Amino acid sequence: MRKVVLITGASSGIGLALCKRLLAEDDELHLCLACRNRNKAEAVRASLLASHPTAEVTIVQVDISNLQSVFRASKELKQRFQRLDCIYLNAGIMPNPQLNIKALFFGLFSRKVIHMFSTAEGLLTQGDKITADGLQEVFETNVFGHFILIRELEPLLCHSDSPSQLIWTSSRNARKSNFSLEDFQHSKGKEPYSSSKYATDLLSVALNRNFNQQGLYSNVVCPGTALTNLTYGILPPFIWTLLMPAILLLRFFANAFTLTPYNGTEALVWLFHQKPESLNPLIKYLSATTGFGRNYIMTQKMDLDEDTAEKFYQKLLELEKHIRVTIQKTDNQAGHSGSCL
């Protein structure tokens, strides 16, 4: 039986490169592309099948930042599949990133210059907005939409006889200082991306604590700094091109510059081939590239504790309950309105 792998954000960047690498290693996989733009997904599907005609590639349309879309996609997936072997929770956004020129200037002359370029700590702020669901957009897209997807797909994921994997695209930029349990949507801060990635790390730890006994395992990955739509939002492509000689030199000292989506998927592909029950849930797996262009995996102990992870998980469950009640009331009101017409 083919292994079934679901990948969110599969039509570009890290997600697209991941699809190509997985099929290059095993074209007997069934890849399900979970994408917002169906036309782009269809084009990706056609390209993948042209290269790997024996593979099975399907599409489910979903906008992770819209809970109604997540519910619809989940229902469709439960009708199609009996189980999912792996979900790559990869879709994410960094809206309106602003480079802190002052922090960059002072960082260039500090002892933390390599660390600054590796993690972008203190360099980036982002704008955020409220979604149709009444949630912060970055939080809903990067964290909560995926959380609801997992909750909805539990019947396909929880099989104690054969484990399933959750693999989250996190970041070296996940900073404890940017996250607060009291403001876990980061509505009052200016670094929602960093906060959302730290929230991802917490959630992964909590999911292991709550679901390992049911055969579901979760891990987090950082793809490094790869040139994708996300990084092109920080600086335009021509600036990255001008900076490339300096970046290539810097890569001899900072292994986070994977630069290409292919290189960035190194840890994501490696994790897929591991026994999930053998992996450390408190470790982040990092894609890394040497100055000479060789890809390898690094590990980093996450700066978090399991009690905070569990508290965050409970807050997400409370938010989920509130969302479901709100949706039910809305549906009931719509039903009553329809009956009066």
Can you characterise this structure?
This protein has one domain (2-336): Rossmann fold (3-Layer(aba) Sandwich). Helices cover 47% and strands 15% of the residues. The protein is built from 13 helices and 10 strands. It has helices at residues 13-25, 38-51, 67-80, 101-108, 113-119, 137-152, 154-157, 192-211, 229-232, 237-250, 261-264, 266-272, 306-340; strands at residues 4-8, 30-35, 56-61, 86-89, 98-99, 124-125, 164-169, 216-222, 283-289, 295-301. The protein has an 8-stranded mixed β-sheet, sandwiched between helices. It has a two-stranded antiparallel ribbon with strand order 5-6. Helix 8 links the parallel strand 7 (164-169) and strand 8 (216-222). Helix 3 (67-80) runs parallel beside helix 6 (137-152), helix 6 (137-152) runs parallel beside helix 8 and helix 8 packs across helix 13. It is globular. It is a single-pass membrane protein.
Rough shape?
Answer: globular
Most strands sheet: 8 strands, mixed
Strand order of the largest sheet: 3-2-1-4-7-8-9-10
Average pLDDT over all residues: 90
Total helical elements = 13
Ends distance: 51 Å
The helix/strand series, from N terminus to C terminus, equals EHEHEHEEHHEHHEHEHHHHEEH
The number of domains is 1
CATH superfamily: NAD(P)-binding Rossmann-like Domain
* SSE-based structural type: alpha/beta
- What oligomerization state is this entry in? single chain
Rg (C-alpha, Å): 20 Å
CATH class: Alpha Beta
By CATH, the topology is Rossmann fold
Number of E-state strands: 10
Strand content: 15-25%
CATH architecture heading: 3-Layer(aba) Sandwich
List the uncertain runs: none
Give the proportion of residues in helices: 40-55%
